[in-house]
Give the backbone structure.
Amino acid sequence: MNIFRFLLNILFPPHCVFCDRTMEPNAEVCICGSCPERVTLCSASPCCEKCGKPLISYGDKKLCYFCLNTKSKHFDKIVSVFTYDNLVQESIRRYKINGIASYAPTYALCMQGRFFEEYGDTDFDFMCGTPSHTDKLKKGGFDQTDELCRRLSPLIGVPYRSRLLYKTRETEKQSTLGVAARRTNLTDSVAVAEGENVEGATALLIDDVCTTRSTIIECSRALKAAGAKRVFALTLATTEKKAENENRA
């Protein structure tokens, strides 16, 4: 570490990505000692084996209501690190809306652990990120998913293909729409960039939050339409649906 970076760490020490508590200078993982007990890991609770959503209660079924009834063939599996609630929700909002790019290295380390838990035996040809909405870049000043991919790629040894996917048309922001509208908003809105070859590939798709699965479904559809054989997804967090809303998830 050079002296300039050392001084910066002393003057501006890192903060916990969840509670914003000041950390020791040069901390590699910016998560304080109390926060691991205050966030919910998907690996610590029953989750759908297809989309990774926390299961409410369906007896011995290992698939959520959505996956049992839609049987989507576009994505092969989705895995997430955290449930999108409380501290995790506020942390990701700061990352995306306030443009706190310094959270990305810690997020990537968390995703690295989850990757090897679930995908350690899978041979991936490449990883790519979901294409960002223009407003995200304007607000945060950087492409949040691209930053995650760049940090994660060397940690898991999967090459990152930047800008592989692109938006074919303008869409409404998913966060401003209801559940039903989110599913139709992205239909046929993503494609593989011209000249990019994904024929027969096993792809790892990266996103920050999985909500209605619509973004991952559309990106996976585009990849498979272009010839990809399998598409797995890894997200930092996933929303948790209440039992009474599961039919509309």
Summary: The beta strands are 77-83, 126-129, 165-167, 190-192, 202-210, 230-238. The two ends are 47 Å apart (CA to CA). Residues 104-119 form the longest helix (16 residues). Confidence is low (pLDDT under 50) at residues 242-249.
